[in-house]
Amino acid sequence: MKPSDRVDRVPPSGIRRFFELAEEADDVISLGVGEPDFSAPWAAREAGITSLEQGRTSYTANRGRRELRERIQRKLREYDLEYSADDEIIVTTGVSEALDVGIRALVNPGDTVAVPDPSYVSYRPTVEFADAEPLAVPTSMDDEFRLSYETLQEAGAEDADALVMCYPNNPTGAIMPEDDLREVAEFARDHDVTVLSDEVYADLTYDGDHTSIASLEGMRERTVVFNGFSKAYAMTGMRLGYAAAPPEVVSAMNRVHQYTMLSAPTTAQYMAIEALDSCNADVEEMRREFDRRRNFVLARLEEIGLDCFTAKGAFYVFPESPWEDDGEFAEALLEEEGVAVVPGNVFGESGEGHLRMSYATGMEDLKEAMDRLDSFV
Amino acid sequence: MDKLHRDLVDLLSKDARQSTEDLARMTDSTAEEVEEAIDELEEDGVLLGYQAVVDWTEVTDDHVEAYVEVNVALDRETDYTDVSERIQSYPEVQRLTLVSGNYDFGLVIQGDSMNEVSRFVSDKIAVIPEITQTVTHFVMETYKDRGVEFGDGDDDERLSVSP
Hints:
The structure holds 2 protein chains of 2 kinds. Chain A is of the alpha/beta class. Chain A has 13 helices and 12 strands. Chain A has 2 domains: 5-40 and 281-376, Aspartate Aminotransferase, domain 1 (Alpha-Beta Complex), CATH 3.90.1150; 42-278, 3-Layer(aba) Sandwich (Aspartate Aminotransferase, domain 2), CATH 3.40.640.10. In chain A, strand 5, helix 8 (178-190) and strand 6 (194-198) form a beta-alpha-beta unit. The radius of gyration of chain A is 20 Å and the shape is globular. Chain B folds into 2 domains: 3-43; 57-141, Lrp/AsnC effector binding domain/regulation of amino acid metabolism (RAM) domain (Alpha-Beta Plaits), CATH 3.30.70.
């Protein structure tokens, strides 16, 4: 059998190759991991176990359990967002599904979707699987990998139908303060661009609170907010996310979701209810630990002499590669010193010459990895 | 307490062996500032000591720990502090706390054998005039101590590289 043209034109993820190299090597310390090294808070795990003991293994409502949507409604108020649990929130199988469904619900074949570059590896393929065209919007370390009116304009995004963005950002650790978001909002309003805002790292900011673009004037009606439990609640494997948007958008998304996914995993939904009810202190404790590691890694990179802007969100730093070819450097670092990092080029052309280092790794390993990097450079 | 002092208390209460340089990196400050702050915390009686969490079963078969509940009867001339002073000076007493509930003092006693700990309680603690009753619980197994879980711990099952 022959794969469809749709699949054929999307190359496999560049991360895959690095994963295979790292798996083969011995005694590897990995700074290549895109998920927390903590487990989900025990209270959430206990709630999942209890739900299983009670035999709660059936489907839920398409949009997710009502109690969960009500808690998400409450959670979103922390970001000055007001969405109704009735018809403006949908619970999905991770943010990944929400984004896929969101794009398929809002984007027509042949439409253009602007995607900042570098960005999380899934955005472009998700756009392409919807038979739309991704348009790279280059960002750079000089601008701390933020978007601006100008960068969007220079990339030709005024003709784009939608913009997919993620701040706090994977892979760079960049955030968009409110002033910068205002520029993007103005651009979106001026050129009638729909914004798909992946805010899954919202609770992992280290220099002030997260601002959602949907909270800015005139943006609620043109924004879909995506968030989930993977990062802040350390529940990646539970696959649970959600989207919030005006009713007609959630209704359209639910049309795709009900036929393709039916409902998000039930156990995970019970865990998420408990997570939102009682796990704020756990999240804050993890955030503080990440902050210390971030300080540590940034300080070590400076001592080692690698240029790096001060990443203020997520759990990544994105320093310049000591060698021009980031792929070659990452491979050599893995072979010679047993430290795995992800070369910036797998996140897009503008990521070339950089390395993504995740500090979602225990302090002892981070220290050792930085020492090895130091002796290698 | 300012942020640096507070952060250092948190960090040292979890791991007191970290180097001054690493503590400085983690708190976005200089080694001198950390050194100075720790000195202040020690002088002010905030940081009283630094100890290891030990799994004694890996060290010797002769290590016994017991919780002892102690009831006291006070009078006009004698208060809790007077009694605590007579208890706390024994090196066998690892921990001494005044608690609410059915008894007054909670003690943690360590020794080389059950016999030794029993004798210590009966000969040294129970004979103190204000003490009316003692109840001794020998520890049979320790699963977690000062936030540290005992045992081998879980392996990191995450993929070594992921998006």
